[in-house]
Structures are given as C-alpha cells and as structure tokens.
Known about the structure:
Strand order of the largest sheet: 1-15-14-13-12-18-17-16
Largest sheet: 8 strands, antiparallel
Structural class: alpha+beta
Number of helices: 41
Helix content: 55-70%
Radius of gyration: 60 Å
Shape: elongated
Strand content: 5-15%
Amino acid sequence: MREPSSSEEESENETNDDENSDILSIHNNVDQKSLSASGENLSVVSHGRGPPRPASPSPSLISDREKAIEDTEKLEREEEERKKRLQLYVFVMRCIAYPFNAKQPTDMARRQTKVTKQQLQTIKERFVAFLNGETSIVADEAFTNAVQSYYEVFLKSDRVATMVKSGGCSANDFREVFKNNIEKRVRSLPEIDGLSKETVLSSWMTKFDAIFRGEEDPRKQPQRMSTAASELILSKEQLYEMFQNILGVKKYEHQILYNACQLDNADEQAAQVRRELDRRLQLTEQMSRMRKHPKFVVKEMESMYMDELKSAINLLMANLESLPVSKGSTDSTISRLQKLKRYNRAQHSSLSKMDINDETDSGLSKLDVVLSFTLEVHVVEVKGLKSLANNKIVYCTMEVEGGEKLQTDQAEASKPSWDTQGDFTTTHPLPVVKVKLYTESSGMLSLEDKELGKVVIPVTASSSRQPEWYRMHTTKNCQDDLKIKIAVRMDKPQNMKHCGYLYGLGKKVWKKYKKRYFVLVQVSQYTFAMCSYREKKPDPTEMMQLDGFTVDYCEQVPDAEGFGGKYFFNCVKEGDNVTFATDDENERTLWVQAIYRATGQTHKPVPPVVQTNKISNTQISRMQGDADRARKHGLDEFVQANPVMFDHHDLFNMLQTLTLDYRLNDAYTCLGWFSPGQVFVLDEYCARYGVRGCHRHLCYLNDLLERAEAGIMIDPTLIHYSFAFCASHVHGNSYEVKIKLKRGKRPDGIGTVLLKEKLQFDEIKERLRILLENQITHFRYCFPFGRPEGALKATLSLLERVLMKDIVTPVPPEEVRNVIKKCLENAALVNYTRISEYAKIEGRKGSGSTDSYNEEVSPKKRLDDVIHLAELCIEVLQQNEEHHAEAFVTAFAWFSDLLVEHAEIFWSLFAVDMDSTLEMQPPDTWDSFPLFQLLNDYLRNDENLSSGKFHQHLRMVFAPQVVRYVDLMESSIAQSIHKGFERERWEPQGNGCATSEDMLWKLDALQSFIRELHWPDEMFADHLDHRLKLMAADMIEAAAKRTLKSFEAWLRKGGKGTDYLLYPEMAVMMNVIIDCKNRALHLCALDSGENMTLIENSHQYHTKIEDFLDRIQVQMVKCLIEKLLSVLESVLSKLARYDEGTFFSSILSLTKPVNELGKAYVDFMRGNLDILRQKIADELFTLSIFEQWYTGQMKMICDWLSDRLDLSLHPYQLTCVMTINRKCFSDFELQGVPENALNAKTYQTICSRLQVEEATQSVTQSENSSKTSRFLGGGGSSMGGASSGTGSQASGDESD
C-alpha cells in the first residue's frame, strides 16, 4: 500500500489558520481587558499603608481570576494549534505543488455513496408508501410479500440503523441484501413457461430500484457521478481546497501563502527541495558526529540508522534527478558516483573555452547544455511602398540564420499586408532573423523576382514579444523609405532558467571583464551551468558548472570601474570567485534569485540596500508584494521556516488524523480508506520529509482503532495491511539483525527499529486483539446481515495474524480455535440477552430475582412470550446461518463445529427461560405443545442441531407431558364412550351417531397431533404410535360391543306381525359399525417403518379390529334376518291352520278368505326393504342383507311346502304363498339381488310345487263341480257357478 502523503492537509490548515488569526486577535483583546480589570481589583485590595494584610480574597474574585487564566491558556493553546496547522499547510502545499515521489493511485476501489440517517428515514417512508399502495409501481403479490419481508426484517432492524450511524452502509448494501433475499424466493417459485427466473429477478430489481430511488430528479444522477469521478484523480486546485478544509485554513490565507511560497514557479519549488535535502544531509552528518540517536531495540542499529537516513536522502535526490528538465534536447544523465561527489561537495570544476569540446572531470560537455528554441516570426505589413504600381504583387521571405526559408502570401502593392506567421526552431541562443521584401518580375527573360529591401533582427529570449516597426535596407531596385511591422517571439526552453547580458569576470573563466550574453542552463535537477554565447553560435564559448557555488550580492569591483555595470553580485566557492554586473538593479535581483534556486544553498541572499524607489519589473514587484502581504498577516514565518527543524513525525500524525476525520465525514463509505488524492499527498509528505513508514502505519492503526472502538465502521482489510507492515518491520528487522549478529555478519540492508516503535506496536497489537475479539463476539451487530461484504472473514484472518508471535512462526490452529470458541461462547450470551430484551422477557423479571417473573404476569402470558422468544431465536440462528456462516467456514475449515457449539450454548440459555416457564404452568395443560412443535421442527431440519444437546433436553422435558396427555386422552375417550352410549338416542349424525362421531374424531385428532409432533426419538415415536393404534382398536371394539348390545335390545322391541317395521335407530347402529370398520384401517394400522417387519405379525391391530367388526356385522345381520323371518314364520303358521284334514280348516273356509295374509306380508316386506335401502349407508352391506333375507324367506317357504308334500294345499294357502313368492322375487330383483341368488334351486322347487298345487287345485275343483251337478241336478249349476267364481277370484287375487 502506498504511504499517504501530507500535501493536501497542509494547504487546508493554512487557510483555517488565517481565519483563526482574526478571531484570536479579537479574543486576545477581550481577554486582556478582562485580565486588566481583574488586576485592578487585586491592586485595590493590596493598596494600603504598610505591608498588605493577609486577607483572603472573596470566592467570586478567585473564580474570576481562575476563569481569566483558563481563558488565556485556552486562547494560547488555540493560537499554538493554529500556527501548527498553518505551518503544516505550508509543507502540504509544497508537496502538492511539486511532487517528485508519489502519484495519485488509479487502481483503488471505487467507494459507494453512504446512506445517512435522514436518507434511511426517507427510504423507509418510500417502502411504506409502496406497501400502502400509494405509488404507481405495479407489482404482483409475490413481489409485494418480498418487499414486506425486506421492510420488516431489514429496514426496521436496529442493526441497520446502527450500521448507518457507523458510516459503513451504502445504497449498494441495501440493494445486495434485497437481491439475496429475492433470489431464494424466486428459486422456490414454480417454473413458468415462457418466463425465466432471471427475467423475474431482473424485473423485481428494477422495481426495487424504483421504490428505493422514489421521485428523485433524474438530473441529479450526473451530478452524483461527477462527485464520484472526483474521487479518482484530483487537480492541484482541488487538492489545495481539500486540505484547506482538513486543516481549517482560510481561503485568503491560502492565497497569501501560495504567492509567498511561489508555488506556481517550478524552479523555485525544485530549488526549495534541493535546499531541504542539503539541510537534511547536514543535519544527518551533525547527528553522526554528535552521536545523537534515538533508542533502538538492538544497539547495533545505530550505525545502520545513519546509513538509512543517507540512503533515504540519496533516494530523494535520485527521484528529483529523474524528473525531466528539458524538452527536445538530448538526454543527460549523471552517474551515481557524481551524485555522491556532489553531496559531499568535494569537487567543483568549470570549463574554459579552450577545453569545451572535451569532457571534463565534472562530466559536462556541450551536449549537456544544448538549447532548443522555438521562434515565431509574424510579418504584419509594409509602409512606404510608393514606387510600385498598385497592382504589382509583393511578398516577403523570412529565415532564421542557418535554417529554412519561408514565404508569406502574395499581396498587391496598394495593400501590402499579410498577417502571416512563420515558425522556426534553432539551437542558437542569439539567433538572427532575416526578412526580405520581393516583387514579381514582369520581364519575359527575368528568372528571379526583384528584391526591394531587407531587415536583419537580432533576437533574444527576453526580447519584446509585441509587433514593432523596423526600417528596411532598400536595394537599388527601390528608392522608397520602407518600414515593416514584424513581431518576433522566442520561447524559452524548459532547461533555460534565465538569460541576459551581464558583465563578468572570473579567475578560471571569463578572465576579461566585458559584456557577454549569459544563459543559466539546467542540465539535471542537481546540475546547473552558467554559459556565455556569441551571436550565430549554438555552442557556448565558455561555461561554468554551479555545483558548490554560493551566490550573493556584492559591492562594486574596483577593476570594473569605467568598463560598465552598476549593480554587482558574485558566485563564490572555495578557490574560485566569479563576479557579475548588470546595468539594472531589477535585472540583478532576477539573476541572483535564479542562481540561488540553482545552487541550492541554504543562505538566502539579501539585497544590501532596501529599495525605496519604484520597482519597474513586474515579476520582482509581484514577489515583493507577496512577501509584504505575508509579513503583514504574520504568515512570513511559516514561509521562511526551515523544514528540517520540525518534528515531521508529530506533524504527520496530526495531518493523518485530521485527514482521516475528514474522510470519514464525507459522502462515501470509505471504511477508513483514504481517497486517491489524500493517499498521494500523504505519500509525498512522508517521502519528502522523511517520515518513517512504521511510524506512519502505527499512527494510522492508532487512529483506526480509536474510530473502531467508538463504533465507526472500519475495513479490517485496511487494518490488516497496516498491521502486517508494522509487524514485518518490528519483528522481521529485529529478528534478521539478531540472526546476522549471531553469525558475525554486518546487518546491511535491514531497516532499523526504534524502541518506541516496538512499544507502540505491542500496545496497538493488544488493543487490536481486544477489538477483534469484541467484534467477533458481537459479529451479529458489528457486521449486520453480512455487511460490509467480506468484513467478517477479513476480521477472522486478521485475528489469526494478530495472534502470531512473530512473522516466521505461524500460530497453532488450536490457539486460534480456542480464542474464537471463547468469542462465540460470549456471542451466544450477547445475542440471547439482546434478543430476550427485545422480546420483553427480561423487562418483566422481578427486581429481586433475575430468574423469575413478577407475580402479576400470568403463566399463559409468560408462555406466549417464551413462544415468541423461540420464534425470534430461530430467526436469529437462521440469519446467522444465512449471512455469517459462510464467512466463518471459508475462513477456517473447522469452524462449522464452533458454530454448532455456539448454537447449542445459545439454546442452553433459552432452555433456562423455557424450563422456568414450563414449571409455572398449571398441571394437565397442553398450551406448551406449540412451543415444542416450533422448536422441534426447526431442530430436526438442521442436520447440525438435530439430536444435539438442546434437542435431547427438549425431548426429555416434553416426553412426560406427551405420555400424560395420551393417558388423559385415553381416559377421556373411554369415559365418553361409556357415558355417551348410555345416553345415545341413535339419531343419525355424520356417518354414524353422535357418540361414535365424537370418539372417532378424538382418536383421529390425537393421532394427528402426536404425528405432527415429529418426535425426534424413533423408539419413543414408535411406542406412541403402537399405543395410539392399540387405543383406537380398543375404543372401536368397545363402541362396537355397546352398539351391538343396543341393536339387540331394539330388535326385541317389535312384534312378529306383518305390521312390523324396522326402527331407524337400528339402521344408525348398523351405520356406526360400518363407519368404525371404514375408519379402522386409518386409525389402527401401524405406519410403515424400519421396525415394521419385526412387529407386523404381533401388532396388526387393524386386522384384528376388522375381524371383530365383521363378526359384529354378521351378528347384527343374523339377528335382523331372524327378526324379519319371524314375521314370515308367523304368516306361514297362520296359513298352516288351513291344512287339509284339520278341524279349523273347514271352519276357516266358511269365512271365505281371499288373500289377506299374502298382501299383508308383501306390504311388510316392501316397507322394510325401503327402510334398509334408505337408512343404511353401505350399499354392499344393504345388498348382503337383502340377499340373506331373500334366501331365508325362500328356504322357509320351501321347508313349509316340504312339510306338506302329502297334503294338498288349501286354495287360500296356495293363493297367499304364490303371492308372497312372486312379489318377493320381483321386489328383491328390483333391489339389486343378483340373478343367481334369486333363481336359486329353492326358488325353483317352490315354483314347481306351486305349479303342481295349482294344477291339482284346478282338477279338483272341476271334479267337484261335476259331481255336485249330477247329485243335485239343475241346482248344481248355481254351485258350479259359485265355485267357478271362487276360482276366478283366486286367480284375480294372484294377478294382484
């Protein structure tokens, strides 16, 4: 990482200091008045004759005096702080104005705009407006639910508000959290043809952005982007403004200091750097001589420290030397050996004109001082051209001595103006420009145009740049007095620092005092030469390297009197002296300042006489005015201060701290990272003023830790960089030095380590360890919802680095594990404490005991609170798994075990509240089962917590309750069966009666409830299942027995006559058995499982109960058929009285019965068929009853007929039996009795017998009628008619 520079901060400090000076002056006046006033009061007390009395002053007087003293001290501190900031701003300004060590980095991560408290409130309001339907954004239910969840869980969270307060929350964090949430939701949605889930995600994010942005003006977007762009590369003006704000420097103070320091003059700034480095080198040599060293961790580092300082200075010199000083000229380089010679100021040399073509000991040659000039020749117009005709064409040519020739456009002689510019390049410091005027020749034989005149203009770099009139030398072709208006501009090359005519006299060069054209040439950043030139010559005639010379003003040289020059200055070094003179005092001042910047001398030349006359040179007047303004405002001391005399480590600490505060308060989520411009200035400051890298990072770490401890979000990666640098410096260098010393080697190439750096590093390391452990303990609140991204993982990596004893030995994994384990143990307590407070559990605890509730809180309310607390606990662990687990696991592979332990500890704390709540619940209440279901459903789906400690504890707590609940339910159901069937009125309800429906519902509800518990212990779950199935079988069996008993009782209520109809209650009873049989498989069959094959033979409860119910049904049908057949039996017994040969037969025949019994039985049969068909719910069961009833009837009739094989049936008997037989067949056929049952052998036998009887009856009746007619004669006709009428009536009855 690049070390931050300090130039920005200095500029800002200076501005603030100027403003503070005015304010402080006002305060000083006020305080002086107050002090004088207090002094008068004291003097009054002390006045009197003789010695003053030892009277104690009044308390008000003492308090006023102390207040005045405190105010004075406060103002003094503020003034001292102001001066310090102004001085710091001067150093920063110089770093910004002329950087030669650092550049603004372009590879730094772009920072997002931070979200403030006001913006957070606005965002909440926007989402509330969307949820209330107050926006025009169209959304479906799924998106609305996602936004609702996002608002409730994220936006309303106190952790988000804390993160916003810490300055570490950006709009991108809000967006990423929502994106992560909806990705899970969209993945769970079913696939839709023609609509991909990526399209849904994109659409949802677009709507989210619309909600988040609200009704913002889109024109603000470019402005925001421009501010973001300013985060990347800043101009010098922007850097000045930034550090004015950082250091509290006022704008006018900045302007005064800027001008006084000549920050716009690169030469002055380079000279300032050279002077600073020269002073640092002198100070280093002085420290070496006096052996003043700071304390080191190793004694042998003292010599290394001096080498370190010198190498740092050499590096700065090399960086300065590497800066380009010329453009278009040949490269010039100075060897490392020459640099060292120059630093030691041991050799100085100059060149004479005799050996200029040969390289000298100094290494300078004519190639090193090559100058490249750009000339612009602008020909405007010509005056006085009268001898030519107006329509003649004229033009001009221009050339620079030794260069190419250029021509202007053509113009008429009447208007000879061109306004044409020619550009030239030359290496001559004193070039000559030739301009000629031509006219076109009109002769046929003329080959060249006629020259009318010419002008030769000598040019220097200091010549006027405005157009001037020159008199042309005319030729014989033109007799006119011609004048031409020409502007010549000669630009100075970058390596030409000053030029002009001087009088010079020296010992080795310029030995003759005369006027020459001198040029101050910069060969490199540390090499300058004074060169003298002649006209039309590109190379200097003589030159002198200024290395080691000192320039100053001097008096007039006696030998030069009368030869020219009024104002003198000289360049002196050991063994050499060169004197120069000018005719103008301002020119001398400019030359002295230019050479002063070139020599890099520490002594600043001061003019011998104060100038009282008006200064004509604008540059000097401006410089003098800037100095006067700085002196007027008391700022000249900061400009002239010697940087070497300041403790730049202390100044940089102040600069870096103020810059960090400024950075943390800007509009970006910097997380402690400086902006590129700030890094550039801090880097430049450290390099230029020799701030040690370890000190810089130690101060940075200290500032970052203070902010992090105050709750400001700091990027742990940033802390890691600085900590690693310091650790490598402190441990690495100390270790390598000791190793080399043990081996008897000189520890070269190794950095020194100060004792105070070692102590400060140890202190910071301990503070950092405490901070990191605290952050890991509070990871849920320090890194809410996993933001900033990657911060938790970086914190864990940094902790591992901090735990290392040195940079060589890695920390044992077990040690890291133990530290993090302890942190997570504390984290469990912290998380549970906060979440319980949030759930209002802790708030209702009594003041006397922390483990029990107030008596006013009801057990039901407390249980509801615990259930709510359980929901919050589950949500907390789910959020931890979602947002933090990945960071833990990716940091350390073994971390998942610690997370499981953390969760178990968290649940163990919850178990305390849960147990106390359950203990205070009344006995035999089951409101706590939802708590078990909630917890068990979460735990059994978590592979890490399933069957864990808390899961086992939960099972042990609720197992007795489950058993007790089942016992009570079993007793309740048994009692309801007993009492219910006693009071049962057998009215139809559902598929059975009221008691059976209640019993079956309770059995099913109990089994469903136990099943939904998802009991974690498989053996206990199987036990509960077996018990419930057995209970259901027993209860159904008991209900079936009670139903059968009632059925039999109801059967006994009716008689045996044909008027008997089945009671509807009996059908309800049969329906009860049918319903029990239908539900038996569901209620009594065991669930298939691993152990099912082992117990299925011994515990087939549903098979047993079905067999039992089948027997009950058989018994009920049997009783029912017997009852119904008893009616037929009664009918047949009545018909038996008509048997042939009986006493009653003849008597009963006298009543002349028709078919009363047959019709009565058919009505009985049809009425009961309808009852059975309508009241019994099971169709197959009804058909079975019909089939058995039909078969029984046929068998009984067949048996009755068989008993009378030897007897002939009475006509009445025959009529009734035939009616019963035929109606029975037809009616049962209509009820769906199958053909094979209807047309059975019994039925066929009956039909055969009845046919025989019918035939016999017909024959008998015919024989009887013939006998009677013979015996009675004519009277027999009436009898025969009667008998035939009887037969016809019988047949008519049969037809019914």
